[in-house]
Amino acid sequence: MASSGKSSGFTTKKVPDDLDAIVVGSGIGGLCTAALLAKTGKKVLVLEQHDQAGGCCHTYVDKGFEFDVGIHYTGKQNCVRTWQKVLKGGTVNQALVQQITEGQLQWAELDKSFDIVMIQHGEKRLEVPIKSSREEHKKTLLEHFPNEGKAIDEFFRICDVHTGTLDGFIFMKILPLWLVKLLIGTGLVNRLTSFFSVMSQSTRDVLDSITDNQDLKAVLSYNYGDFGSPPKDSGFLMQGMTVLHFHEGAYYPKGGASEIAFHIIPVIERAGGAVLVAAPVTQILIDSDGKACGVRVHKSSGDVDIHAPVVVSAAGVCNTYQKLVPQPVVSSHGLDDMFHHVSPGLGAFSVFVGLTGTSQELGLKAHNAWMFPGNDHDKLIEDYSRLTVQEACEEGTKTPVLFVSFPSAKDPTWNARYPGKSTCIIISFTPYEWFSEWQEGRVKHRGEEYESIKNRLAQKMWRQVCQQYPQLQGKVEYMDVGTPLSNNYYLGSTRGEIYGLDHTRERFSLDILTKLRPDTPIPGLYLTGQDIVTAGFAGALVSGLLTAGAVLNRHLILDLIILEAKAMFNSNNNNKKLD
């Protein structure tokens, strides 16, 4: 039967026989793992607790408006320098997407000024566009900070040095665990890679070392929201990698984020597998020999056990080891100790706005705006986190960061699909504790006080947006609000986080490295997703490549590099013949 590209609701009749693997969670890490296994002939079942597949790559449509919930843009730049050297003009990320979608997914490039940084100083505002090329990025920074040329050059030099160590980080993920432990125990790991020494340097410390200009520091670290850890907590490598990630352009999927899952699902189905939604996994089954052997799916008609020799959890490390795997098993392998050192990232708060008018009529561009009420990101987050939720709702309170995106302006197919309409998405961070008293309530039935608080926060954020985009006043046709509790329900988060584990320096330490790997000490159980490499689409995508390689006991990274290099070589030869 030909695949429609759409996921299907769970029933026992739809579960394929003789499964080779089960993947828990259908985010890009899980789907990538499943698709790569399927391309080797493996029959894989992907189970998703939500009613749509895709995780952060899914969209929802309500009252004539479509919203993406997690994919707002992604870069083309490789995060591993060796890949860049081998592929030159191509990228492994791009090649990997081509493989798992059979070349069907297309991308639209955002404006060359893909991000706009807006820092408010009383009545004045510093506005700095971020360009999608290194040369133009530096040129723009120099135009706004003409006396900081030395600091700007040093910033990019350190970015290069730090991101150049990522090869070592990736290879520590795919080397056998016994070898990694040997390298750590003997100290040889620090002779092979400087990743762990550079990762100990915080973003704030590095910025403090190159300049005293607080505005410049704020602009150089503006997109900490792309991985969720403010400058004092994150290793500078995360900041540098995020900056360089967009130096060959920023992109958005044509047709919206749901196209990603739509084009991956047929690859899984053609090998005899399936992607089933409304299938909440409540337990990973462990047999008497201590091996993962399947999962338990909760249904109102009764729990269903499904068996397979391989289980891949794309549900996040916290969910996997604190909810799905029986605790005696977790403790017996010492995996619970990790949670003394790592924890979920910041809770996210989202506002989805439907607007009357096209992007052209409203003057909306294919870019994102990052709005800050000051130039000290750490202090803004700290001050905001100390407030009560009632204080945060007050008009004079400063929201530490607003990420403002216009998906309708990024997607060239939008006007044909939703004529006369536009959309805006606002994202910020809020403490989970502000909403924790309602965590036991049912979605959409949490009471008037909860609704009042989230709507007051949303309206306050919208007013801030309209100060920068006054043409949007009076154009709102639809507004919906998502709190950290919404993320728990729809994305399977644990404390409202959207980037998995917090991207602190400790998360990337040698001790944690041995636990955040595709393979686990529990035979038959593997991990994938944002917790295995880094946050975001690209990080989760690469995790899928690593995890599929671990399951197959094959270095798929090298296979992909060779495959893409051959394709580029053939393409270059064909071009020469045409010349």
Automatic annotation (TrEMBL):
Q: List the Gene3D superfamilies.
A: FAD/NAD(P)-binding domain
Q: Name one Pfam family in it.
A: Amino_oxidase
What GO molecular function terms would the record report? oxidoreductase activity
Q: Please list the residue ranges annotated as the Amine oxidase domain.
A: 199-552
List keywords of the entry alphabetically.
FAD, Flavoprotein, NAD, NADP, Signal
Highest rank taxon of the organism: Eukaryota
Transmembrane feature ranges = none
- Tell me which family the UniProt entry assigns to this protein: Belongs to the carotenoid/retinoid oxidoreductase family. CrtISO subfamily.
What name appears for this protein in its UniProt entry?
All-trans-retinol 13,14-reductase-like isoform X2
Q: Which organism is it from?
A: Branchiostoma floridae
